[in-house]
Design brief:
Blueprint (H helix, E strand, L loop, with lengths): L3 H38 L5 H46 L2 E2 L11 H7 L9 E8 L4 E8 L3 E6 L11 E6 L13 E3 L8
Parallel strand pairs: 1-6
Antiparallel strand pairs: 2-3, 2-5, 3-4, 4-6
Helix pairs in contact: 1-2
Length: 193
């Protein structure tokens, strides 16, 4: 597999080759047309002949450059697309840790409170939890009405399911703004698996 350094080296080499081809193609057009025009139309220092020379040399140069421009556009477009995909991939990655399922299963009375409630997000409920010590945590995702699967804006699970005193559904009529990489997934499943 190609390393990032090798890809960067190849990109720099491509740019050097493209610039070289651009310059060399002009001199090729110049070398071909200048003697031919001088032989058939006279000195290129005359206005009429100079105009023919400009049209011939620059016209040929543009015809040579056109395929180079198309190839370069495709290369640049691909580079931007790859960069965009890398940015999206990094932005969409979530953090993941593995917490034993027994510490994530909520009590029966809380399951009953969620049962019959419409799912906030496909597969579960987004809730705010209050712990038995009075602490509160926002934006906790409970999967299938029984298992804490994710917590927003945390780096570790700061409580166990047993400590939860109450759950309150998050108002999804005005849903909170989330950034994917701030979600902490608790079942050990990582991004892309």
């Amino acid at each position: 597999m190609e390393t990032k350094t090798q890809k960067n080296d190849r990109t720099v080499l491509w740019w050097i080759l493209w610039i070289t081809a651009t310059i060399v193609s002009f001199f090729i057009a110049h070398a071909v047309w200048t003697p031919w025009i001088a032989e058939h139309f006279g000195s290129i220092r005359e206005t009429k002949t100079a105009l023919i020379w400009v049209l011939a040399v620059f016209g040929t140069w543009m015809m040579i450059l056109f395929p180079l421009i198309i190839v370069m556009y495709q290369k640049v477009d691909k580079a931007y697309e790859n960069a965009r995909m890398r940015r999206e991939e990094q932005a969409n990655q979530f953090r993941s840790i593995s917490v034993d399922r027994s510490k994530r299963l909520i009590r029966r009375n809380l399951r009953g409170k969620l049962k019959g409630q419409p799912e906030s997000i496909e597969g579960g409920h987004l809730v705010n939890v209050t712990l038995n010590n009075g602490a509160a945590y926002s934006n906790v995702f409970i999967s299938k009405g029984e298992e804490i699967l994710g917590i927003y804006d945390q780096t570790e699970m700061p409580f166990t399911a047993e400590e939860i005193e109450d759950v309150e559904l998050v108002n999804m009529n005005e849903p909170p703004f989330f950034v994917s990489n701030k979600w902490l997934r608790l079942d050990g499943v990582s991004y892309g698996t």
